[in-house]
Amino acid sequence: MNILITGGTGLIGRHFINAFQQPYQFTVLTRNSQKAAKILPQCVEFIEELPEQNTFEVIINLAGEPIVDKRWTEMQKEKICQSRWQITEQVIAMIKRAKFKPACLISGSAIGYYGETGKKLTGEEVQVSHEDFAHLLCKKWEDIAQEASEHCRVVLLRTGVVLANDGGALAKMRLPFYLALGGKLGHGQQYMSWIHIEDMIHAIQFCILTASINGAINCTSPQASTNAEFTKALGQQLHRPTWFSVPESMLNILMGQGAELLLTSQNIYPQKLLEQGFDFNHSNLKYALADLL
C-alpha cells in the first residue's frame, strides 16, 4: 500500500512510519528532505510539494505547527491555524483534480473540538454549543478535510494528549518532575484525555483497514484521568514527590490563552473505536507510564 503522509517527521508520523515500514510504502511531504531523511528510515521517499496527480492509496494528513510550544499571541494563533488549514486545502485540491482517488483520507484534528466537557463522558456525537479558539480551529480543519468525502472515505482523528517516551507532553514534563518540581495544574480536578503512542498509531492503522469507519473518531484512552491523578501517577513512576502546584494565574501569565489547553476539563471517550472492535493495549494510566518511562 502506497501512503502519503504530511507531518511525517512529527511525533505520531514518525512512530507510524517506524512501526509499519512493512507492509506499507511511505512518501512524506516535507519542507526539507535532507533534514527529514536524517529522522526517518531509508525506505521513505520524500517530496517537497504535492504532485498534480494523486498516486496514493491512502493519505494521512498530520501536518501543523506545534500547538503548545509557544505563547498564544494573535500571530501564533494564526500560524497554528494556517499551518493546518492550508496544507489540508492543498491535499483536498490534489484529490479533486486527480484521476486516481485514494481509498481513504485520514486527517488530523484534536479533542479541543469539544471544549469544556467537565466530568461528562463525551463521545463523538455530542453537540458542541460554544466556540472557543480550539473548537474553531478544529472545526474548520475538519470541514476542509470533509470536502474529500465526495471522492473517498474520510476519517478525522480527534486526538488527545499523546504519551510517548521521545517527545510530546511527557518530554516536557520529565525534567521538572525529575527535579521534584512537578505538580498539579490549577485545582487539578480537570479531566485529561490521553493516549499511548502505540495505541495511537494502531488506531490509525485500524482506520485504514476498517472500511466501516468514517467521520470523526476520538483517539483517547477509554480511561481519562484528572490532572491530579496524572500528576500523582507520573510522580510515583519517576519516584519523585509532587508537592507543588501551578496556580491558574501563573499558567495564564506564562501561556496566555494557551493555558486553556491545560485547564479545560475534557473527559473524552473513544466510542466509535470501541464499537468497531478496536482493542486498546494501554488503557490504564499507571501501566502506560510504566511502559514508557
UniProtKB/TrEMBL annotation:
CDD domains: SDR_a8
Coiled coil start-end: none
Alphabetical list of SUPFAM superfamilies matching this protein: NAD(P)-binding Rossmann-fold domains (SSF51735)
Domain DUF1731: residue ranges: 246-292
Superkingdom per UniProt: Bacteria
Gene3D superfamilies per the UniProt record, alphabetical: NAD(P)-binding Rossmann-like Domain
Signal peptide: none
NAD-dependent epimerase/dehydratase domain residues: 3-210
Similarity remark: Belongs to the NAD(P)-dependent epimerase/dehydratase family. SDR39U1 subfamily.
PANTHER family, A to Z: EPIMERASE FAMILY PROTEIN SDR39U1, SUGAR NUCLEOTIDE EPIMERASE RELATED
Database matches in NCBIfam families: yfcH
Name by which UniProt lists this protein: TIGR01777 family protein
Organism of this sequence: Colwellia psychrerythraea (Vibrio psychroerythus)
Lineage, uppermost ranks: Bacteria, Pseudomonadati, Pseudomonadota, Gammaproteobacteria, Alteromonadales
